[in-house]
Amino acid sequence: MKPMxxxxxxxxxxxxxxxLFASVMEDEETLELALSIIMGEEVHLRQPNQVEKEFRxxxxxxxxxxxxxxxxxxxxxxxxxVQERNTGNLAKRSRFYQALIDxxxxxxxxxxxxxxxPASYLIMIMxxxxxxxxxxxxxxxxxxxxxxxxxxxxxxxxxxxNTRGTDDGEVxxxxxxxxxxxxxxxxxxxxxxxxxxxxxxxQRVREVRASEEFGxxxxxxxxxxxxxxxxxxxxxxxxxxxxxxxxxxxxxxxxxxxxxxxxxxxxxxxxxxxxxxxxxxxxxxxxxxxxACREALCREFGL
Length: 303
Fold this sequence. Notes:
about 15% strand, 2 domains
């Protein structure tokens, strides 16, 4: 198990930290400022920001927790995320996030037009260059390989922002300043920024850092993280002692666990699709609540 990460003081956090990012962007005006710089146009949000919003299609399926989520007055949906470490799966993770968001946007039932799906922008901000091309901004849309310039027009845009880009001439000076500030959200960096909008953003950062309410929330979040880590360590030690008695079969056991998890997820996904296709929404709800019912339905469909 990795050593416990050293606790940072709230004043030492930058906007690449999920807690500070969500706390600062909880303010609607602040998120509007940041999105306006990123989008290169004025963005006006039409509802309170949703931070740390959880998306899950079914109770037994995997969920994701989005950092900041909102919709503007043109019905464009935004999900803004920060990612401090390169986990090696961000491209695929963005695909999963997009699919999960889309699955919640239309009401159930027949007669619903897919054209009601709004345009969506998934924005990931990170202090590393996923593709090594030196860009501050990588924008992805679905395009036809055989016909250059022909786009699918599905309304989906994924934007990856690299705080360490080098192509200053290809993005606005304000966007470059914003990305530098997100990585180093200090008074010194803010003073070097010429953008009035970034000065307002920094004022909000200072307010959060000085807030007793956010200070308490931050410590509670750390206490919870430490408790979960210690609890997991105890469970791991107990399991390790037990498994140590059967060391020769450890590799096969671990492979079996992994295979079982994957098969279980595939089985549940298949059941969900079958029930949706059959219009059996009541059975779907019962399956979500009752493992015995879920197992019986799996047998019914031969899963």
